[in-house]
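Hey forum,

I'm writing up a methods section and want to include a predicted complex as supplementary material. The small molecule is allantoate ion. I've pasted the protein sequence and the SMILES. Can someone with a working setup run it? I'll credit the forum in the acknowledgements.
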Amino acid sequence: MYQKVPAFTEFNEFASNSTGGKILFATDDFFAACENIISDKDPVNLPEEFTEFGKWMDGWETRRKRTPGHDWCILKLASKCIIAGFLVDTAFFTGNFAPRYSIQAARLTPDEEALIPKRISRMGTAASESDLELMSLLSTDKWEEIVPITVLQPGYENTRMNFQKVVSDEAWTHLRLNIYPDGGIARLRVFAEVKPDIPPSDQLVDLASMLNGARSIDFSNAHFGHPKNILKPGKSAVMADGWETARRLDRPSIITKNKDGTLKVPGEEWAIFELGFPGRAKEICIDTTQFKGNFPDTVKIEGAFLKNEYTNASDIDWEIIVKPYKLSPNKEHWISCHSEVINHIRVTMAPDGGFSRLRLYGFVETDLI
Ligand SMILES: NC(=O)NC(NC(N)=O)C(=O)[O-]
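Reply by user p_vandermeer:
Happy to help. Structure tokens for the complex are below, copy them as they are.
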């Protein structure tokens, strides 16, 4: 049985590898390296797997502390953002999960970040005394406690998901995750809203990038992968890191084609995104990388400028930006386009399937921000 997932998990995620999060420091990596907590993959359990240090664990696990203090790590977020909530997943850490945690946040300048000692990430290691002394150069008044010391539940199927809502309007660049006194956690997910600087109006910007504030706000189907994945930076490394729907069950028993080569198959799946900035679209990329036997036949893109908060897709007067466009497997499709000023798009795939990334380059309409 799975736990109920809070609404803040619909926000983009800013700690994991695929979005550009980074572990900068950890006091101890004895049983399992801290980088595991930002892995994109869901944690796995390999009960028979042991390393020279102990039981192999898919997460960050420190040694049992026999000295004063507690363990902690520093993580750089993919972008400066306002945090809506956390997931501390203790999956498969049962007799060895960290019993309590807290989170502090900071806005660090590049000079301040440079004070953090270079990290050696290896199982069996711990930060040296001199590294810990260097860390004390980072003034403590930079770090604000945004999650107080909080009890964690063990990594059983029905207790592993430790969700924590955050209510604050401040934007942060770095997090310090404290575990008390030691132990393991499998993953840390940080759900947040990015507050990017406004780019100049003569610069082409990816208006659909999550790092520029784009977000997924509605969709018809996300069975295998959430549409918010297509807004992530960089290429997708696995098929799970994309938007993928279930196969539509209303497809005909035998598939045939229209004269123009499109499929004679009813039905489509759609997702709606709020763009990071209002602007005019100039070039769109639909990237089917990783999707080989399950890319959509076609994708259509429409845009709209909404003055008010989005409520319902059918109430909107959508302008077609890219007519149904025939796709190929495992490939970037770059399409030139021209739109009016828009701040939302509807992406419709027919009849179903998945793709990994969407780019929408355009000029920002700075007067409307
Ligand atoms: N069986 C274990 O998991 N033992 C120890 N942890 C690892 N990973 O070996 C521990 O700290 O309890």
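Some notes you might quote in the supplement: The domain at 204-368 is CATH 2.60.120.260 (Jelly Rolls). The longest helix spans residues 129-135.
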